[in-house]
Amino acid sequence: MDHFALKHGVLHAEDVPLTAIADAVGTPVYVYSRATLERHARVFAEAVAGVGPHHIAFAVKANPNLAVLRVLARAGYGADVVSQGEMRRALAAGMDPAGIVFSGVGKTRGELEAGLRAGIGQFNLELEEEGVVLGEIASGFGVRAPATLRVNPDVDAGTHAKISTGRAENKFGVPISDAPAMFDRLARVDGLNLRGVAVHIGSQLADLAPLESAYRRVGELVGALRAAGHVISHVDLGGGLGVPYRPGDVLPTPAEFGAMVERVTRGWDVTLMFEPGRVIAGNAGVLLTRVIWVKPGVARPYVIVDAAMNDLARPALYEAYHDFAAVEPNGATFAANIAGPVCESGDTFAMGRVIDCVGNGDLGVLRTAGAYGATMASTYNSRALVPEVLVDGDRFAVVADRIEPATILAAERVPEWLK
Ligand SMILES: *Cc1c(COP(=O)(O)O)cnc(C)c1O
């Protein structure tokens, strides 16, 4: 459930008509709903409330906006970060360093040092050598780094190949069959407090079965590690829950997920960690855009909007579907293609879709854009970096400025020898 709905014929974010945001900020612009973020955070927290000791770390890469992180920090969430930049954002949003998990397959030495200095709560190791280096740095600092070993359970998450992370051939984690021997070696590393295992098999999962089989494998591993004398106090179950993108999409609910986790992890006697991203932020945001032209096409018209693949990359990147709706629908529909102004044929949001009838100058939204939206934006085609707005009841604020092409141009220069 989200808080984007028609009121008096105009699409609103909570109590703010999107027309008012377009007037004040211009388009394209991402619009987030605080009430929706808080609702999703609460629903997820309630869904896993029964699993025993646990910690929820929002996957910052899904939506790293400072104000969004602040909303989630106030809801009691920690953060899952995959770079020093994300760590800095989580800290700036007021998150407790102890509640931050540092994931990522290519953490640099500098990032490990920065994480230790900041007092990050847990490092999820992606390879043995990383654990050795982390232990070395931590020893130098006179501390022990809390860490888990991320395992790759070799299950097919059944999602798009580009957001699948738990197959043996993916770059993430260590093969689960190698984990016991690696754990033995890493447990002896000075400066490392290797206290558990982590798993994350992919994103936009439409079915709980692959998660369940991954978790069962992790449960067996925990048993084996304990039998070998290791103390296992933490298991990080990652993120991945999908959200409905199309009308009629049916996905596992957080409550169903929570019930499955409770069933599978019963008796593990650990602190469980969750890293939800999309399920919290996905439906809490829309990309508000204005129609520039309706251009006649061979089979059907092209609705050329002022948002493009540089603002919302998911359709071009992995054929993602985003629902389109007019901000002031007139009741009519037509079959059209929706495309942005970028000079790539892949810059299309929909082909041959029946949508609200729109004309030049009309406003529309691409829905479910709150996760993996603005965070992936670029300035390709020398377009502006898209701004972000947060709505709270009947008020709203620009929470990320539009970065104009002139600002970006100002950071470039022609060397003396080329003038
Ligand atoms: C991306 C990612 C997540 C979040 O995934 P969602 O599908 O957005 O829930 C969680 N953990 C790790 C390690 C990730 O890389």
From TrEMBL:
E.C. numbers: 4.1.1.20
Binding site for pyridoxal 5'-phosphate: G240, E275, P276, G277, R278, Y372
N-terminal signal peptide: none
PANTHER family: DIAMINOPIMELATE DECARBOXYLASE, GROUP IV DECARBOXYLASE
Matching InterPro entries: Ala_racemase/Decarboxylase_C, DAP_deCOOHase_LysA, De-COase2_C, De-COase2_CS, De-COase2_N, De-COase2_pyr-phos_BS, Orn/DAP/Arg_de-COase, PLP-binding_barrel
Protein's name according to its UniProt entry: Diaminopimelate decarboxylase
PROSITE patterns (alphabetical): ODR_DC_2_1, ODR_DC_2_2
Keyword Amino-acid biosynthesis (UniProt): yes
Metal-binding keyword on record: no
Catalysis performed (reactions): meso-2,6-diaminopimelate + H(+) = L-lysine + CO2
Domain Orn/DAP/Arg decarboxylase 2 N-terminal: 35-281
Annotated pathway: Amino-acid biosynthesis; L-lysine biosynthesis via DAP pathway; L-lysine from DL-2,6-diaminopimelate: step 1/1
Similarity remark: Belongs to the Orn/Lys/Arg decarboxylase class-II family. LysA subfamily.
A Pfam family: Orn_Arg_deC_N
Assembly and interaction partners: Homodimer.
CC cofactor: pyridoxal 5'-phosphate
Gene that produces this protein: lysA
Record: residues binding substrate: R278, R314, Y318, E344, Y372
